[in-house]
Structures are given as structure tokens and as C-alpha cells.
Design brief:
The structure is a single chain. By secondary structure, the protein is of the alpha/beta class. The chain is built from seven helices and six strands. The chain has a six-stranded mixed β-sheet with strand order 2-1-3-6-4-5. Helix 5 links the parallel strand 4 and strand 5. The chain is elongated. Belongs to the universal ribosomal protein uL4 family.
Length: 208
């Protein structure tokens, strides 16, 4: 499948690039996408939540009332979960929410996300570019020229480019990554996927 390559000023460069059908043209697998996104979000959880159980509460252990004769249930400690300020029953404890996912499943999920972007016409290939110095205004001008200034975008670079990365870092609806660090969540979370020309071959090598 051929896609026209655009310049960063919004004009057509006259060049076309071929996107591999084995990567960008597969039938998307929704379950693989679900598992990969679930793992990505699970790995982002801190898992540091904690509540105290009755053994950890600092309250008196004096018996509240006599065992019998009050007409109410027997009670022996203010630490009981039944009383206000008592310990919590089966409360959350620090834990790791991460889980294992097969490498081939993750690859299939990324291929499926890319295929959805092509199907929905949400992919754009642009010429490789750089800036002389990091400047947010420069990157905003690129987005404006490509009519993407009001959309959530993901720019995939072939190699690390510090000036481009620093220029777009402070823009809330724009994210910049390299080809070897793309993930399913970022691909699907973006309204438009911007692929630098040099990143296409690297993505195909990574997922082939």
C-alpha cells in the first residue's frame, strides 16, 4: 500500500512510500489489543495503596462491656471492624499489578493498532526533519501546517532527536517517541499517527 509523503509545511513532497501489508494491512485482532492495553495500564499502577487491619490499629484492648446481659452482641475489642475507627476487613495491600504477556501477542496488538490507523485514515507519513534548537513554537507551527494543532497526535521518529523531542514535550495533546518504543496504547490513544519517513522501515523490521 502506497502513502504520499508530506513536508512539514503541509505540502506534498511528491514522494510515496510503501507500507507493508504484513504490518499495516492485517486483519486487526481486538483481543490482542485488549490484553496489551490492559498490561500497559496495569504496569503504570503504583500499587502502593494500604489500609490497616485490626492487628495494626492502635486502640485499647480493654473489654468494652460485660459479656452477657446487655441485650447486644458480645464485644471484646475496639479494634473490631464492626466499630468506627476499627480495622478494615480484607483491605488493599501493596501489590504489583503487572502480568506476563507473550511477545507475539504484543507484536500482534501493535500490528492491529497500526492496521486500525490505516483503516480509519488516521496515519500520515512526513519527511524527516529537525530543528536548530529546541523551541515549542517550531513544533506548534509544524502541527498547524499539517492541520493537526487541535488533534491528539503521536509522532514516531526513526532515531532519537533531542531538539524535536524537547520542542514537543510541553504540548499536552502531542507525544513524540522513537520507532523502537511504540506501544499499542499510545497508537490507539492518538487521533493521528505521524510517521517520520525513516521510522517506517524500522517499525517494519521491529514487527516483521
Amino acid at each position: 500500500m502506497e502513502v504520499a509523503v508530506k513536508k512539514i509545511n503541509g505540502e506534498t513532497s511528491g514522494k510515496k512510500i510503501n507500507l507493508s501489508d504484513d504490518i499495516f494491512g492485517i486483519e486487526p485482532n481486538d483481543h490482542a489489543i485488549y490484553l496489551d492495553v490492559k498490561q500497559i495500564l496495569a504496569n503504570q499502577r503504583q500499587g502502593t495503596h494500604k489500609s490497616k487491619e485490626r492487628a495494626e490499629i492502635a486502640r485499647t484492648t480493654k473489654k468494652l462491656k460485660k459479656q452477657k446481659g446487655t441485650g447486644g452482641a458480645r464485644a471484646g475489642s475496639m479494634k473490631s471492624p464492626l466499630f468506627r475507627g476499627g480495622g478494615r476487613v480484607f483491605g488493599p495491600k501493596p501489590r504489583d499489578y503487572g502480568f506476563k504477556l507473550n511477545k507475539k501477542t504484543k507484536e500482534l496488538a501493535r500490528k492491529s493498532a497500526l492496521a486500525y490507523k490505516v483503516k480509519d485514515n488516521q496515519i500520515m507519513v512526513i519527511e524527516d526533519f529537525t530543528f536548530e534548537a529546541p523551541k515549542t513554537k517550531n513544533y506548534l507551527n509544524v502541527l498547524k501546517a499539517l492541520s493537526l494543532d487541535n488533534k491528539k497526535t503521536l509522532l514516531v521518529l526513526g532515531d532519537t532527536n533531542e531538539n524535536v523531542y524537547l520542542s514537543g514535550r510541553n504540548i499536552s495533546n502531542a507525544k513524540i517517541v522513537t520507532a523502537d518504543s511504540i506501544n499499542t496504547y499510545d497508537l490507539l490513544n492518538a487521533d493521528t499517527l505521524m510517521l517520520a519517513e525513516s521510522s517506517v522501515q524500522k517499525i517494519e523490521n521491529l514487527l516483521s
